[in-house]
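Schema walkthrough. Field components (list of strings):
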Amino acid sequence: MNLTVNGVAHDVESAPLTTLLDVLREELGVTSPKAGCEQGGCGACTVLVDGEPQRACLTPVGAVEGTEVTTAEGLGSPEELSPVQQAFTHHYAAQCGFCTSGMMLAAEAYVRRGGTDDREAIQEALAGHVCRCTGYVKIIDAVAAVARGDAFDLTVTAPSPGMTNLGGVS
Amino acid sequence: MTQATEVMFPTSADEAVAQFGDGSDVTVIGGGTIVVPEITYGRRRPAKALVLSRAGLDTIDAGGATVTLGAALSVARLTELADDATALAQCALNIADYEVRRQATVGGNLCAGAGADAPRGDLQGPLLALEATARSVGADGEVTEPLEDFFAHRDGRLLLDVRFDKPAASAFAAIDYPHTHAYTVLAVTGVRRADGQVRLAATGLAGFGTRLPSAEAAANDPEKAGAAALADATVGDDAVASAWYRERTLPVLVRRVLADLEEAA
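Field assembly_structure (string):
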């Protein structure tokens, strides 16, 4: 069955009930979608299917035959990061990185559908994505910055307007 | 494991019905949000799988005095009913997250069995209060019946659509979830029909959505109705809440919904 992943057409051999996640990772070697909970609850496997975010772990590959799948690999390249990737870098929105691909694709879809820098709206858009490292402040900062159309200087890390000063260290 | 499964992707409702046949050994996959993890984790090994993603059952028809929802309609699209069935749209927004709402289907929500740790089927309450009918096929052919009756024998049947009359007003109240992905702790839907009668139903009390007829009979007096609701309920303990807690919050939600209905009048 046909599947286009990050602009490259593939003839997939896996059985039709195999999850899209397994096809991407095991058959096609596209490893940015992560196998976290594998029951739709963590968001780490999220990819774009025809531009809309979808859990690859919940999707039988046969159900998305003929579609265009985008993963983090398809957002930008190491030489030319996409705005969302630049924002996550500049705002230090990734720590271990396990949730980051899913977060970025949900963010990409949010910005594409005209999402604003309203923090509550961003929270709602990312509600299905779990980060166990850092909390969410810097992730929301990053998405808000992309939504505003900020330019990013990748040689410095941005201060966080969303952080509360907890320790009295200035 | 999955290689041995016969997988069918019908491209029309008629083809889905034909391929479902008498339903024996057929696992129906709507959006996959419940069934696919069960396959992944080896809890279910379907002999035959009927995947509805291309069956044309993802329709919504709210053009006239009634609303008809195809079984494979996504939960997300119920938000289009904000004017026609407010409670259903609010309930949909309360389910899971942006991505899962786009994948989960009305049929899956109504047909999934109760989970081991928590009740499922958020849409059962609103659709029971809306007095929806269900059209399904099975070994004895096509049947259209009240949703309660469908629930009683849904195993072995393929749900095609649900239909209800547009209400004069509707309201939805739920206990806030501890987490986006938690199942409903408790939710109450109130519907004022075009003829002025009030219908009430709850999700999260026990395994299934429940109509609250004693509360309906006392709907003119919210205090009384809240207390009466307890008589209609079989309340259970599970991982998300205790029966003790649910007994104390059910009257509150009933009163809240009746107050909202009053305001909408």
